[in-house]
Write a structure and sequence with these properties.
CATH architecture of the largest domain: 3 Solenoid
Number of domains: 2
Shape: globular
Number of strands: 29
CATH topology of the largest domain: UDP N-Acetylglucosamine Acyltransferase, domain 1
Mean pLDDT: 93
CATH class of the largest domain: Mainly Beta
Helix content: 25-40%
Strand content: 15-25%
Radius of gyration: 22 Å
């Protein structure tokens, strides 16, 4: 419902609405959550009781914006597109044609050019995406400033759906323990290329334009280059059958570990560095909600994978074949132990602690900084020793989850 009373309340509160008759603001939007100084251009549509917009933000500078239950920090610029259930921290910038769905969290100064699709996407400060990109089910970090940032070139895609019709495919470009400290060299994913998930990419990696990366790049500061489509091969293939799942599972567990580390960061560190304004608090809560949503998604997708593998093993046995040895060893272990593993993951998720000694030392250093609500500058000002303590704390969380796959294989 287009609520004229809400629009008038916003205008009287200092929000600029160009051509109010063309702007639709649903009655579910709380005017108190839209800060003075926000600019809403013609054709935009806002809805949702969780919608919050910080001062200096602009909607629809190039084309209309649809905004549903999103949280925007200070000086966010959304030039055009659809945004639903996402959290965008201070100084995030989007070109027109965006399609952004739930599970999306962009941190300070992250940016996307025109026609970018995101879902279940976590971009840490300064990460930049070009145009015509689909980058769902990824976490990306790296870089130290707006001039020294990780980047994804135009016409890039993260391949996140398999022939098995599963999405146990999250890719980790950088990581959380080092990424949050804003000291790592940037990662470059060249344009008109792609990443086949689940994949891990180390800091300093350069994947040349036009390259489809189908493997992990775990050694830092390496160049990956290769032509695609040059030598096409043909094989017999049964889409019901799963091969060796070791790498898939290992990467998924490491990804979940990084999510739990980010959850801990938003539980312990972000509140200290969040200015006490309604829009900042909304972004903090929104960020926590996105991380929780992504964790739920990853557990859901792994559960589906285990179910599909169990179904295939059953089919093999019903056909009178043996589902033993070889690739079936790890498959059976995943299926048999998955319920107990989920219970362990839920326990680790609830604890949200890690290495308490390093955590407490790091938090003490954070609290001694004169942050004045500036998240990026505060993190940048920490000593390398204090950053190392923070990284050790978060890495302990990652390792505690990543080791679960080893326990499955050898337990």
């Amino acid at each position: 419902m287009n609520d004229n009373a809400t629009k008038q309340a916003l205008i009287q509160g200092g929000v600029t609405i160009d051509c109010p008759d063309s702007v639709s603001i649903d009655a579910s939007v709380d005017p108190a959550r839209i800060a003075p100084g926000v600019v809403i251009h013609g054709g935009c549509r806002l809805s949702g009781e969780q919608t919050s917009i910080g001062p200096g933000s602009t909607l629809g500078a190039e084309a209309p914006v649809t905004l549903e239950n999103c949280q925007l920090g200070r000086s966010v610029c959304l030039k055009g597109g659809f945004f639903s259930g996402a959290t965008l921290m201070n100084n995030v910038d989007f070109g027109s044609g965006a399609h952004v769905r739930p599970g999306t969290l962009l941190e300070e100064h992250a940016s996307c050019a025109h026609t970018v699709g995101l879902k279940q996407t976590l971009l840490m400060p300064f990460v930049t995406l070009g145009s015509l990109i689909n980058f769902c089910d990824c976490l990306m970090s790296g870089g130290t400033s707006a001039k020294n940032h990780s980047e994804v070139g135009s016409s890039y895609i993260h391949f996140n759906f398999t022939a098995h019709q599963d999405k146990a495919t999250p890719s980790l470009v950088g990581d959380v323990p080092d990424g949050v400290m804003l000291v790592q060299p940037p990662i470059f994913l060249g344009g008109q290329g792609g990443l086949v998930g689940p994949t891990r990419i180390a800091y300093g990696s350069i994947i040349a334009a036009g390259t489809i990366c189908r493997r992990d790049v775990l050694n830092r500061e390496k160049l990956l280059f290769g032509e695609t489509g040059h030598r096409v091969k043909e094989f017999s293939y049964d889409p019901r059958a799963f091969g060796e799942i070791d790498r898939i599972c290992h990467n998924n567990f490491i990804y979940i570990g990084n999510l739990l580390a980010l959850q801990a960061w938003y539980h312990h560190v972000r509140p200290i560095l969040t200015e006490g304004t309604p829009h900042a608090e909304a972004c903090l809560e929104g960020g926590r909600r996105q991380i929780a949503d992504v964790i739920d998604e990853r557990l859901k997708r792994l559960t589906q994978l285990a179910s599909k593998i169990a179904e295939h093993i059953k089919q093999v046995e019903e056909e009178g074949q043996k589902a033993e040895g070889g690739v079936f060893v790890n498959q059976r272990r995943l299926v048999q132990q998955w319920p107990s593993v989920v219970a362990k993951l839920m326990q680790l998720r609830g604890e949200c602690t890690g290495d308490n000694a390093n955590r407490d030392a790091f938090l003490d250093a954070i609290q001694k900084q004169d942050s004045e609500g500036n998240y990026v500058e505060t993190i940048q000002s920490l000593s390398l020793d204090h950053k190392a303590q923070g990284t050790a704390w978060l890495q302990h969380i990652v390792d505690s989850v990543g080791s679960l796959w080893g326990e499955i294989k050898h337990g």
